[in-house]
Amino acid sequence: MRVTWDIFCRVIDNFGDIGVTWRLAQQLHQEHQCAVRLWVDDLSSFHAICPAVDVSAERQCVTGIEVYRWCDQTVAQRAQESADVVIEAFACQLPEDYIALMRKKQKVLWLNLEYLTAEAWAAQCHALPSMQGAGLQKYFFFPGFTDTTGGLLREADLLARRDAFLASAEQRRAFLAGFGVQPLAHERLISLFAYANAALPSFLTALSQDTSANRLLVLPGVMQEAVARWFATDTLQIGCEYQRGNLTVHVLPYIPQAQFDTLLWCCDVNCVRGEDSFVRAQWAAKPFLWHIYPQHDDAHLVKLEAFLALYRHALADDAQQALNGVWQAWNQGGDISRAWPAFMAHEQTLQSHASCWSAQQNKHADLATNLVHFYHDWL
Ligand code: TRH
Question: Which of 125, 126, 218, 297 is the most buried (most CB within 10 A)?
């Protein structure tokens, strides 16, 4: 009998919640032969990352995964019974009627999949249970960068696919040409996916005044409007090229998640954000700039520093300073025009470091495998 999994995802904003749960659902199904139902409250965000999703369907099968529109009133009736393992992603609240099904089934593993953080407390709280009443316990499952956490999402063949792709200049050329991007041999190719960021104008200025040529691929979102403002125009057209000094800009359409990695692999530097693209940039093994999801009380800056402390650890002091300088300025909306050239002065070092980091992270078990093992140990 296949183990059954119900994954619940509420799309709070942006694409990270569905981005993470969709990857997890696919991996559990494809690599661990689990029967997965994914309950999502916002199918339009899901459609953006996976065009095969029909936004009007209440229930559909997408690459072997049962996808349900999550509506509290109908979940229990549609589910009929609880799965063996229930994941509430990022503390989304399960409907009471579904919890009643879990009680009825008795042997159910209930997990809250938490947001990724490198802070030490995550490892301390990882896998801890909390009593929910009527005999049900909920376990907190923390992704992370060490063996004392739940690990990172990583498909079994991801790094081999990356390396095979990067070994073929033709594949890279063809992939980029599909978006009308034809970088010149000497140009630095940079992807840009970020939240609204006051540091952006100084970043664009630094790129345009650079002594070497830069080609910037701007992904959908507020960045496209901000880049348009820098070019003193209302909107930038997808597929068109804009130039100032040593900076050429391309505006990209929304890319299906299945191709998102490929884009990161093609670039020399990736600017990413949130959680999922942040992790994928690490698997892409290129120097990267993380725009962390901003929180009201600046809690994100603590989280940022916790990751930086881990990530920069093996770098020499000057490269550490360059990395800190650009990441702090980017995340605090500061002037990045001095920090960026300093960062790029260490480009080769940061490139080797990114490869080592990815290889080192690859030694840990991945999140889906850890979840499956956790279930078997719990049984
Ligand atoms: O969209 P995000 O800002 O999501 C965020 C974070 O997860 C954050 O932690 C959370 O609190 C907040 O949402 C609610 O960034 P993230 O996590 O990188 O997710 C983006 C997803 O979208 C990722 O799976 C990659 C995917 N994507 C595409 O598939 N194609 C694209 O063209 C782009 C730009 C993104």
Answer: 218
